[in-house]
């Protein structure tokens, strides 16, 4: 019997973040769905983290390594993806004093909160994908759809510990 | 003529779920405008469940809210079960109640710690709170994880339960899971004590306005699921007669409907339950109330958040008792009973969810297809009362600096724990 909650996780979690009805914001869940249809090495789990809010902190807990796939505005060409660690980027929290709701907190907020609390987190690798369009629309834009095969390959290599590339090279 | 001039326009109050604005306009001491406006887009859930089969409704309506999805699912299932004459087992009742407690704790801890506490501790949000008071935020996260894990153990996942079905559950927790969860609940008593101490130490604003408090009530327990409707003005109704209580109506500045009963406004939520059903709280919850200085009737709406703290203690204690009972009885491998449509029918379900009394009302045809639906959400039922509180509070504080007035009004809105997105489900608003 399996459950969607774990108190003791080991190994690697591939975590897709975003909403499939928000255009390219859905790239994370889409990537997770694509990987679910492929053979994965043992000790690798997949999770559609959706728009998990601050509870994402609990999702990160207990893993040795978490590979996050999320849409990210990096000022690049739409469809470009970049592999980076939290230490290599400045993530801007959404949930600051002026923001409206706590329920749309994202990865940056969770990492900020973890930092403020002094939580020890697993090794985190982020695949940020530059969106072409984020708004009320189902499905990915052609630019992001086109790079999916390479993104899948890069994440799979990362899962196997073979990915040393810094970005998609576009 | 007073020289007081105040102009407050909080466009989208922060630390509430959804979009609402505070508008106050005072000229020369005369209050021209003082209200809370709801500007959230309507949701249309009642329209899009029409044409769907009975077994889908709890899964669809659970999406009304990501915070109280178990509450909507439970209420929806009770409406369907009442419509189609489906009986549920004692085990199902126990598991549903336990699951419900998980959500009450989850929602109340989110509200009291993340949304209310920052106002008192002089920070803008939970992030700076984590820097200034990491122990407080760590405790909140720990309680949230416990309640989320409980919901996952029973419902199959933290939010939007997949295992809850018409008549019962499609998946049951194992006894060892329940035993482990019970141990974690017992260990959480220390966190509850610390929570009570923290909120007892906060300087709650002094403001009182008597109103009508409306909640569910039951003879056998502090009511969250099923029962009859009780009002503090002495009225009582079976849940099927909820329209006698809610009397929904529209105001031009709100996309959410308002409600009224015996007076122009009434209040639902933790404080209403506390006032109406105090005697049935667990003794430890009553002790918590005493520490918080609360004895019914409490008519300070700011203390709705403190009543939530009392309810968290109750849910931990009663949750432990339920888990004891489940372990003594043993978890039986039951499956939901086959549903006989019997020509369809109409049913009402009611639960007192984190923000107050909730009603779902469905009509099914002979094929079990929903042909009509009505959902009355707690936040709607509080809007008239919130506005009445604002109108009573503003004259008492209008001599204070504008920023202080603004903060107090925001705190008042937050005290109601409004879930604005849930409340805007109908567009039929007449603009006059």
Polypeptide structure, described:
The complex is a heterodimer of chains A (170) and B (432). Chain A is of the alpha/beta class. Chain A is built from four helices and five strands, in the order E-H-E-H-E-E-H-E-H. A five-stranded mixed beta sheet of chain A has the order 2-1-3-5-4. In chain A, helix 1 links the parallel strand 1 (12-17) and strand 2 (44-50). Residues 1-7, 95-103 and 164-170 of chain A have low confidence and may be disordered. Chain B is globular. The relative contact order of chain B is 0.20. The longest helix of chain B has 31 residues, at 90-120. Chain B is built from 15 helices and twelve strands. In chain B, the strands form four sheets. A four-stranded mixed beta sheet of chain B has the order 8-7-6-9. Chain B has a three-stranded antiparallel beta sheet with strand order 1-2-3, covered by helices on one side. With 432 residues, chain B is an alpha+beta fold. The interface between A and B is medium-sized, with 25 and 33 residues.
From the structure above, extract its key features.
heterodimer; A: 170 residues; alpha/beta; 5-stranded mixed β-sheet; 26% helix; globular; disordered N terminus; disordered C terminus; B: 432 residues; alpha+beta; Cytochrome-c3 Hydrogenase, chain B; 4-stranded mixed β-sheet
- Average predicted confidence as pLDDT of chain B: 92
What is the rounded distance between the termini of chain A? 44 Å
Give the full name of the CATH homologous superfamily of chain B: Cytochrome-c3 Hydrogenase, chain B
Strands of the biggest beta sheet of chain B: in what spatial order?
8-7-6-9
Instruction: Report on the biggest sheet of chain A.
Output: 5 strands, mixed
Compute the number of strand runs of chain A.
Answer: 5
Unreliable stretches of chain A: 1-7, 95-103, 164-170
Give, in order, the helices and strands of chain B: EEEHHHHHHEEHHEEEHEHHHEEEHHH
Spans of chain B of at least 5 consecutive residues whose pLDDT stays below 50 are 424-432
| Series of secondary-structure elements of chain A, N-terminal to C-terminal | EHEHEEHEH
What is the domain tally of chain B?
Answer: 1
Number of helices, counting only DSSP H or I runs of 4 residues or more of chain B = 15
Structural class of chain B: alpha+beta
């Amino acid at each position: 019997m399996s459950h969607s909650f774990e108190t003791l996780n080991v190994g690697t979690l591939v975590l897709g973040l975003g909403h499939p009805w928000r255009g390219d914001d859905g790239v994370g869940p889409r990537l997770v769905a694509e990987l679910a249809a492929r053979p994965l090495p043992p000790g690798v789990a997949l999770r559609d983290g959706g728009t998990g809010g601050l509870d994402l902190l609990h999702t990160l807990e207990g893993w040795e390594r978490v590979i996050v796939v999320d849409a990210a505005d990096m000022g690049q060409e739409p469809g470009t993806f970049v592999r980076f660690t939290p230490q290599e980027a400045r993530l801007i929290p959404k949930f600051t004093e002026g923001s409206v709701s706590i329920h749309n907190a994202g990865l940056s907020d969770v990492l900020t909160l973890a930092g403020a609390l002094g939580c020890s987190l697993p090794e985190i690798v982020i695949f940020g994908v530059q969106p072409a369009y984020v708004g009320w629309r189902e499905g990915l834009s052609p630019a992001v759809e086109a790079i999916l095969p390479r993104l899948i390959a890069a994440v799979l290599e990362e899962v196997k510990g073979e990915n040393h590339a810094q970005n998609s090279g576009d | 003529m007073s020289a007081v001039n105040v102009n407050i326009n909080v466009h989208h109050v922060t630390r509430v779920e959804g979009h609402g604005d505070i508008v106050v306009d005072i000229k020369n001491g005369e209050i021209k405008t003082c209200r809370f406006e709801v500007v959230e887009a309507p949701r249309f859930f009642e329209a899009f469940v029409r044409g769907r089969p009975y077994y889908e409704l709890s899964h669809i309506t659970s999406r009304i809210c990501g915070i109280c999805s178990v509450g909507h699912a439970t209420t929806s299932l009770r409406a369907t079960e009442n419509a189609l004459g489906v009986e549920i087992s004692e085990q199902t009742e126990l598991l549903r109640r336990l699951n419900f407690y998980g959500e009450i704790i989850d929602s109340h801890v989110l509200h009291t710690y993340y949304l209310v506490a920052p106002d008192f501790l002089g920070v803008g949000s939970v992030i700076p709170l984590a820097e200034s008071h990491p122990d407080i935020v760590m405790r909140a996260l720990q309680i949230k994880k416990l309640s989320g894990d409980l919901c996952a153990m029973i419902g199959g996942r933290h939010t939007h339960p997949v295992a809850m079905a018409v008549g019962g559950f499609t998946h049951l927790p194992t006894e060892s899971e329940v035993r482990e969860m019970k141990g974690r609940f017992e260990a959480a008593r220390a966190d509850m004590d610390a929570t009570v101490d923290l909120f007892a130490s906060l300087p709650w604003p002094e403001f009182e306005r008597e109103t009508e408090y409306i909640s569910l009530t039951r003879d056998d327990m502090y009511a969250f699921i099923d029962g009859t409707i009780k009002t503090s003005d002495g009225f009582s109704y079976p849940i099927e007669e909820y329209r006698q209580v809610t009397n929904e109506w529209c105001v031009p500045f709100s996309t959410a409907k308002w409600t009224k009963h015996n007076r122009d406004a009434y209040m639902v939520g933790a404080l209403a339950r506390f006032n109406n059903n105090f005697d049935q709280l667990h003794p430890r919850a009553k002790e918590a109330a005493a520490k918080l200085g609360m004895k019914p009737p409490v008519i300070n709406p700011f203390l709705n958040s403190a009543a939530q703290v009392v309810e968290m203690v109750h849910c931990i204690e009663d949750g432990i008792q339920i888990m004891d009972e489940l372990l003594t009885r043993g978890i039986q491998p039951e499956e939901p009973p086959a549903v006989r449509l019997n020509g369809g029918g109409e049913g009402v379900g009611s639960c007192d969810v984190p923000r107050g009394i909730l009603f779902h009302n469905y009509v099914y045809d002979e094929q079990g297809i929903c042909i009509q639906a009505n959902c009355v959400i707690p936040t709607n039922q509080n809007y008239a009362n919130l506005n009445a509180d604002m109108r009573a509070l503003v004259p008492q504080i209008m001599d204070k600096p504008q920023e202080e007035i603004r903060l107090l009004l925001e705190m008042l809105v937050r005290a109601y724990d409004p879930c604005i997105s849930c409340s805007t489900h109908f567009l039929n608003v007449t603009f006059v």
